[in-house]
Design brief:
Blueprint (H helix, E strand, L loop, with lengths): L9 E2 L7 E2 L1 H4 L13 H9 L6 H4 L20 H4 L2 H10 L33 H13 L6
């Protein structure tokens, strides 16, 4: 263990900047305005190429959707790899975990660059849509074969 710190107070992917865990704690809980997520609606958002655009970079166990991405982790098994809170954080603003991410911040509205004028100040997904996607991803327990 490094002097002055413990393994539990920092997250550091190899070659990445340290991110103090206390910064994540306030942002990963579900929002009071959102109802519990609906996995079916979440699946529809993930598959929707005009709304979520998830399949542009990720592949997922949605066999009817062709031409799935391979730039980001396969979503199969996501519910086994991450908790709901971790999934929520990755969707809302994955740059809190990896400042070099190419994944859009689906619920961040400030500090962004190259945002179309019509979209400024608006999140990509609503709190409810994020909860729906989290509910769907949490059901994905088996890794891709």
């Amino acid at each position: 263990m490094a002097p002055g710190g413990s393994r539990t107070d920092r997250v550091r992917p190899k070659g990445r900047t340290l991110v103090p865990l206390f910064l994540l704690a306030a942002t990963i809980t579900a929002t009071a305005q959102a109802a519990p997520g609906d996995a079916q609606r979440g699946r529809e958002i993930v598959a929707n190429r005009q709304l979520g655009l998830c399949l542009l970079c990720h592949s997922a166990p949605i066999p009817e959707e062709r031409f799935q991405g391979n730039l980001a982790p396969d979503l199969a098994g996501a519910g086994s790899r991450w908790t709901e809170e971790q999934l929520r954080q990755r969707i809302k603003d994955s740059s809190t975990l990896n400042p070099d991410t190419i994944m859009p911040a689906y619920h961040k509205t400030e500090g962004l660059t190259r945002v179309a004028p019509a979209q400024r100040g608006k999140p990509i997904l609503s709190e409810q849509q994020i909860e729906d996607v989290v509910a769907y991803l949490a059901t994905l327990r088996e890794a891709a074969k």
